[in-house]
Amino acid sequence: MPFQTDTRLAVEVGRIFGDYLGTFFSERREVRADLFRQGDRLEAHVSFPTGLDAARVNDRYLSELSEYARQHEFEGRLHLIYS
After folding, report:
1. Nearest to 37 by CA among 23, 64, 18
2. Distance, C-alpha 11 to centroid of its chain
3. How many angstroms separate the CA atoms of 83 and 71, rounded?
4. 18: exposed, middle or buried (C-beta count within 10 Å: 0-12, 13-18, 19+)?
5. Which of 4, 57, 66, 68 is the least buried, fewest Cβ under 10 Å from its Cβ?
């Protein structure tokens, strides 16, 4: 799963959204999700950089984010925020 870390993002918005964990990009970069620990849940701030919307995206992302949540002990506590 393609994840990256943006240290500027961690500093700039970490105080607002929680502890920054990383950024997910889907295979063709149709989906970006910035991941934050907010208490005991994982918040994924999901956006569509190519201009598509959730109904028109072809890249897998929900299963990828769910798997990340499971692997990092957030199973059942993944909260998606679409922007």
Report:
1. 18
2. 17
3. 25
4. middle
5. 4
